[in-house]
Design a protein that fits this description.
By secondary structure, the chain is of the alpha/beta class. 45% of the residues lie in helices and 14% in strands. Helix 3 links the parallel strand 4 and strand 5. The longest helix has 24 residues. It is globular, with a radius of gyration of 20 Å. The model has no long low-confidence stretch (mean pLDDT 93).
Length: 366
Amino acid sequence: MQFGIFSVGDVTPDPTTGRTPTEHERIKAMVAIARKAEEAGLDVFATGEHHNKPFVPSSPTTMLGHIAARTERLVLSTATTLITTNDPVKIAEDFAMLQHLADGRVDLMLGRGNTGPVYPWFGKDIRDGIPLAVENYQLLHRLWREDVVDWEGRFRTPLQSFTSTPRPMDGVPPFVWHGSIRSPEIAEQAAYYGDGFFANNIFWPKEHFQRLIGLYRRRFEHYGHGTAEQAIVGLGGQVFMRANSQDAIREFRPYFDNAPVYGGGPSLEEFMAETPLTVGSPAQVIERTLKFRDHFGDYQRQLFLVDHAGLPLETVLEQIEILGEEVVPVLRREFAIGRPANVPDAPTHASLLAARREKDTTEVAR
């Protein structure tokens, strides 16, 4: 399994001090968080994509390219790449370029985002959200796998004898996760292509995501990519930890109560009971996270949100250190116990390249 951090890149006032970081400070903080994730022994850093305040990561490939130059091992990903409002030609070229710069340490998560106004900002109609996601990915998928593409669709101008550049590194496109919190059509799309499916697993009860992941697994098998148990699943999670659970709750409460996505809603205790948010000791985070396998089956990637709601950078870095030292080593060990041999590991450039070479060898032998 892979373990890592994902960030939405919000610029939120610290409710305990009233201070709001500048955009510059927040961008630099995200870079520091990624570097700390590698230092702590985590596997993945993922950034969101937003084009509105209070968020800063409007150009994920720029940020990830910079992080690639300052890390050696970390897999660089997105928590959302807006497949609906980005041009698939630009996605193909930007992420292929990033893939080369990072020596293959790149994948991406496609999604529709959660900001309705982004559609007209980029000349799109929100009512076309699902059809845009389907058509744009169909083109992106071809651009990475065909050297010359002729294309005509509903939402963009036709392409004639077009080749996106650079070509994917070693002829192997970045692995794609399709992210969704509510759309069965996206789970179906991930299954159709044999790609990964990432369930945000933050704001909803487990039963909601069980339905989406269950659908994806069944359809993955239906399309002949393997058994349902071999489908590639990623999960989000949200944690805040201190050695003593009461201290964690006391420290995190003002951030929860004043966060734009929480404030005025359920209490912290109610939200922890109804969603996967875990505020407590490292042992409680371990226990809660291990239950994810009971709910969703063996899976490949676990990402945690730790840097939101105005939490100061120093606190976030402490959270990553606790994950690296006390939580993730136990999770790696415990998740490995009883994991069926036929359940694949999280895809990497190296594993995808090896699979392609094996396939080519088999086809030549025939």
